[in-house]
Structures are given as structure tokens and as C-alpha cells.
Amino acid sequence: MNAKYKILIGALVLIILALLAVIVIQHHSHTDDFDTELYEDPNAVDIREPDAQKGSVGNIAVPGFEVMTIKAGQTEQAIWLYNPEKNNCYFVASIQLPDGTELYRSQLIPPGKAIYQAQFSRTVPAGTYEKSILQYDFYTLNGTVANGTKAYFTLEVEE
Amino acid sequence: MKKYISIALAVVLILMPVLSVPAFAEEDATGSFAVTYNVQSSYVVNLPDISCEDGENIVNITADYVHLEAGKRLTVSIDKSRTLRNGRFYLFKDGGTDLNTAMECSIYVSNTNSSNNRIYAPYWFMDNPSLTTVAVFYAEQTEPEAYGKMTFTPQVTVSTPYGAYTGNVYYIISID
User: Do the chains contact at A66 and B68, CB–CB below 8 Å?
Assistant: First the structure.
């Protein structure tokens, strides 16, 4: 009977070790190809608006805004940045004031995901900031730097 | 002995969910968000996703939609500061950055088809450094009013080393 228990315990220990090994391998397989500072943004969630899924195969669909509105005096902001589902690359999005001051930078936004809640690096006084910049840097799905865009928009900061 | 087996089984049961959920963990987290937002996408522009390949590449720039006030226009241009090296566009060998093995590539900008209103003349990007516009859209247009077609012509010579050449084009999008 003792021998049976020993075999059982030995088998269970092996299973536990195997599971731990799988966890470690899974963790590393998601990060090895990329710059160590880039990872999938934990705030990136499924896009909720159906028309935001549009895009064309063979192109990178780049969404942009004429006006974006945020709140003054707070760093937690409700925004809407998304990577259309049909794209075949990651987006890294950043928002800058006209003088180049960076307010926000995402991590990797996968295709079909959006950022609705963002933690800005600083607060912005109320006002209208024309020629603010929404910059997208594109990365292939295996982490290679691809093209990018810089789009000008008007940032309205409300009290 | 049974106690040890029970503990081992409990550890396995605890680990199983960890293995089964990672791909969906982010989605599960969305359930707790109370989201309000007050921005709408004004446009979606389709830009070439190629990093130039060997041979001539012809690509079109289109839009899924351009929701602008009447009279306003959306202009897509090349960001020269990020795209050019020494004023030229290069394709780099095997993903490198060495100019000594890079291949120069010409960019020709023209209208997408002859029926378009030719309000601008086609141009070779490198020969007209003051011109950077590659597409112009007015409100609700999905095909550009002007330009919209880019032709990439790598300058292959007999001394060009064998390899895979790629280069990245960066764009500026503005509304006026």
C-alpha cells in the first residue's frame, strides 16, 4: 500500500512541476519578441462600437479625431483610442500637447481592442489646445517596428 | 499519507484555472468598468501596411469615412523627419539600419485614377522636397480628391547585395 501511495505522490509532484513549467513558458513566449518595456496594454478591451471595426486588408486602418475632450485637473481620463480589428499590427498610441509635452502613452494595443480609461502623466489646465498630437507607432505582431502616423487634433479641456 | 495526497490534489486544482484563463483575463476585467466617453472617431484612413518590398510597389490611400464639417479637408502627408535619411528614402537590408548596405527607393505620388480632379500635378517625392502631400480628402469622401496613389521604386543596381530590404514610411494627418 505504501508503495502505491509513493507512486501516486510522485506522479502528482511531476504534474505540479509540469504545470509550473507551462506557466513559465507561456509567460516568456508573450514577451520574448518585444522590447522589454513594451507589453500588451492591460487597459485594452474589446471595441464596443461596431463601426470601429472597419478596415481594409492590406492596409493599416488609422482612426483619428478632429476634437477630443478631457477633464481639467485630473489624470484619470475617459478617452477612446482603438486599433481596428482588421489591422494586422499593434498600435502604441501617445497624446501630446502642441509643444510636444507627452500626456499619455499606451502600451501595445492589439487589433480589435480599445482604450477607454487612461491614466495621464499630468493634469492639463482648462482650455482649447489646437494642433495637439495623437501619434501612433505601429508594430508587427512579432514585435518589429513598422510605420507610424502623427495626427493633429484639437484637445478641449473642460472644467 | 492520504493528507499529503489531498494537499497535492488541492495544489493541482488551484493551478488549473491559472492555466486556462490567461487569454481571456483582460476581457473578464472589462466587466467592472463603468465607462463614459465623449469623443467620436472623425475619420478612418487606410494607409499602406507594407514596408517596401523588392520591385515596384503601387499602393492606394483610401478612407473608410471622413466625418468633417463641410469645407474642411483632411491631408495625409509624409513625415520627412522620420521617413528620410540625408533627404532620401532608403530600404534597409535584412532589417538593419546600415546606410552602406541600404538601397535608395524613389516615391512617386499621383492621383488614384484619371477621372479624379487633378488639382495637383504628380511628383517625384525626392525631387520636390517642399511637397509632402500624398492624399487629400474632403468631408464624406472615401476616395481622395487629390493624389492617393504612391509608387515605390527601389533603385536596384548590379552591386546591390542579395537580401530582404524594408523601409518605413511615416505619415502626418492634419485637418484644416
Answer: yes
